[in-house]
Amino acid sequence: MGIVVWLIAAALLAALELAAGEFTFLMLGAAALAGAGITAAGGPLWLQVAAFGVTALGLIVFLRPYLKRKLTQPPAIETGTQALVGKLATVEEEAGSSAGLIRLDGELWSARTVDPDIAYEPGSRVRVLRFEGPTAIVWKET
């Protein structure tokens, strides 16, 4: 009978994890499986509870932070326009405060300067600081 209680507890805790999403209930459910394992081996109640407590503490303290860190890491490879920020480009048509064209990674992009009082002549090397929609905001490379 005791093993059934531990297994039901593990299933309920795992189901609660679906609502919470913080890995706490999942760790407690795994600890309940440890208690079920001790029960199946014929261990006394105090050993079942101790196994549950030690396993829960260990999983919450050591495994949970690792899992959360792994799932919240930013993508290793930037995609879209963010992948182009910081790259060098060549001015194709004069880039000023309102318009211009640059060649960035072999493609033409609309561009404007970060400083509205400055314009860059064709052939100038510029660095992409950021994107505002499809327009690259650039600064002259020194």
UniProtKB/TrEMBL annotation:
<keyword id="KW-0472">Membrane</keyword>
<feature type="domain" description="NfeD-like C-terminal">
    <location>
        <begin position="82"/>
        <end position="140"/>
    </location>
</feature>
<dbReference type="InterPro" id="IPR002810">
    <property type="entry name" value="NfeD-like_C"/>
</dbReference>
<dbReference type="Pfam" id="PF01957">
    <property type="entry name" value="NfeD"/>
</dbReference>
<dbReference type="InterPro" id="IPR052165">
    <property type="entry name" value="Membrane_assoc_protease"/>
</dbReference>
<dbReference type="GO" id="GO:0005886">
    <property type="term" value="C:plasma membrane"/>
</dbReference>
<protein>
    <submittedName>
        <fullName>Putative secreted protein</fullName>
    </submittedName>
</protein>
<dbReference type="InterPro" id="IPR012340">
    <property type="entry name" value="NA-bd_OB-fold"/>
</dbReference>
<keyword id="KW-1133">Transmembrane helix</keyword>
<feature type="transmembrane region" description="Helical">
    <location>
        <begin position="44"/>
        <end position="63"/>
    </location>
</feature>
<keyword id="KW-0812">Transmembrane</keyword>
